[in-house]
Specification:
Blueprint (H helix, E strand, L loop, with lengths): L14 H9 L6 H13 L4 H14 L3 H13 L20 E5 L8 H9 L5 E5 L9 H5 L11 H11 L1 E5 L6 H11 L7 H15 L3 E8 L8 H17 L3 E8 L7 E3 L1 H11 L5 H17 L8 H5 L2 H12 L13 E6 L4 E6 L1 H13 L13 E4 L6 E2 L4 E7 L5 H8 L3 E4 L11 E5 L7
Helix pairs in contact: 1-3, 2-4, 2-8, 4-9, 5-12, 5-14, 9-10, 15-16
The chain binds uracil.
Pfam families: Glycos_trans_3N (PF02885), Glycos_transf_3 (PF00591), PYNP_C (PF07831)
Enzyme class: transferase
EC number: 2.4.2.4
Length: 449
């Protein structure tokens, strides 16, 4: 018995033999996969051997059967949560709905989405992470709210779900510990971008979390893991298949991440923008995606025919937000932290903005202190980038394009560097078509054939 609860016989397989098999385009059996995950999580197989296997998987792929076994082995490495005790007044089970985004710049959607769906009486257990690299973390954003606590015990989580319907909190260490170790290794060995490994990493955590329904926001474009729409589609299909096979009602929206979402990338400034959306305002793209994902989550638990935009306008989603923040010791009325320094970048020419590179904006926000380079780093609550124009908008020479916010003035030059060449302005000023935000939807019904 390993410390993770997985059992394995050290002499049953040989890591080198499994690496060679995948290197030579072979398929790993269920027993081989279970052994490798258990032996690696336990420390019997070393980082160097798992790195070699991860690279072989990145180069040669895994088939659906292998991905299913890999995911199941990672789930088995830890605890599984159970929300079946949540009951309505009539004693009937209350189905939970969750959302997962593959990550993008300015992606604060979880913040307005969880209370919006909860305002229809649906429990939303949103176990989230902190940011690494250019994409922000949901917990980092919420921690900008004075007093707000990310860590809840399992019983606190259940109680809050029952009483308030919405919880956004840190995923505990007991959920898919094999993935925690493997993800940290992939991060430093150039093996993050393998579709089988991304799909199994995300879905092992979501299946272990025990949600009844899951909506995936799979992003494609300059600011996403998946740069091409074809790769994003393949990732979405793989994850929908894994969720469906595990009995989770899973669907995916494919969404554009060439440009950042909304007009803010940072922590406190993204909370501020989310509150605008919950007040019935906010940028059109953030509202559109929040409403589209809410509709998908509500339909997945059988609530059809409602327009989720309604509860943004009538204040019910805001009531849920306030209850959710207060339940985790946050003060929804407190002022948010402000950065000590700001610096404005203005437009050199007049015309129509035709491109704004999400990756460059994410990198600038990160360099200003909104993100971390190492897990142990802390983030600045007030740091980030405010955008004053997005693709499709008219810009006039001299008008502000970006406001850079940071507590450390010396960070501004490097952030400015990141933004050089990050956008195009068509000086002819003609109309510009912006790509559709939600460009496809994949459900279990799309997987046959
Ligand atoms: N997010 C995850 O949780 N895992 C991955 O592999 C990539 C993104």
């Amino acid at each position: 018995m390993s410390p993770t609860g997985l059992t394995y016989d050290p002499s049953a397989h040989d890591a080198v033999e499994l690496i060679r098999l995948k290197r030579d385009h072979g398929h790993l059996s269920q027993a081989q996969i279970e052994w490798m995950i258990a032996a690696y999580t336990d420390g019997y197989v070393g980082d160097e051997q798992m790195s070699a296997l991860a690279m072989a998987i990145l180069l040669n792929g895994m088939n659906r059967v292998e991905i299913g076994h890999w995911t199941a082995a990672m789930i088995a490495s830890g605890e599984r949560m159970d929300f079946s005790s949540l009951r309505g007044p009539d004693g009937a089970r209350r189905l939970t709905a969750d959302k997962h985004s593959t990550g993008g710049v300015g992606d604060k959607i979880t913040l307005p989405l969880a209370p919006l769906v909860a305002s229809y009486g649906v429990p939303v257990p949103q176990l989230s992470g902190r940011g690494l690299g250019h994409t922000g973390g949901t917990l980092d954003k919420l921690e900008a709210i004075p007093g707000w606590q990310a860590d809840l015990s399992n019983s606190e989580l259940l109680r809050q779900l029952d009483e308030v319907n919405a919880v956004i909190c840190a995923a505990g260490p007991g959920l898919a510990p094999a993935d925690k170790k493997l993800y940290a290794l992939r991060d430093v060995t150039g093996t993050v971008e393998a579709i089988p490994l991304i799909a199994s990493s995300i879905m092992s955590k979501k299946i272990a979390e025990g949600t009844d329904a899951l909506v995936l926001d799979v992003k494609a474009g300059a600011g996403a893991f998946m740069k091409s729409r074809a790769d994003a589609r393949e990732l979405a299909r793989t994850m929908v298949a894994l969720g469906t096979d595990a009995g989770v009602k899973t669907s995916a929206l494919l969404t554009d991440m060439d440009s950042p979402l909304g007009l803010t990338a940072g922590n406190a400034i993204e909370v501020e923008e989310s509150v605008e959306v919950l007040s019935g305002g906010g940028p059109a793209d953030v509202v559109e995606l929040t409403v589209a994902l809410a509709r998908e989550m509500l339909e997945a638990v059988g609530i059809r025919g409602v327009d989720p935009a309604e509860n943004l306008r009538n204040g019910r989603a805001m009531d849920s937000w306030r209850a959710m923040i207060s339940a985790q010791s946050g003060d929804p009325d407190a002022g948010l932290p402000q950065a000590k320094h700001s610096h404005t970048i203005t437009a050199g020419v007049s015309g129509t903005m035709t491109r704004l590179d999400a990756m460059a904006v994410g990198l600038a926000a990160w360099r200003l202190g909104a993100g971390r380079a190492r897990k142990q780093d802390s983030v600045q609550a007030g740091a980030g980038v405010r955008m004053h124009a997005k693709p499709g908008d008219a810009v006039a020479a001299g008008q502000p394009l970006f406001t850079l916010l940071t507590d450390d003035e010396h960070r501004i030059a490097r952030a400015e560097e990141a933004l050089q060449g990050s956008m195009d302005v068509d000086t002819e000023g003609g109309p510009h078509e912006t790509p559709e935000l939600v460009f496809d939807r994949i459900t279990a019904a799309d997987l046959t054939g």
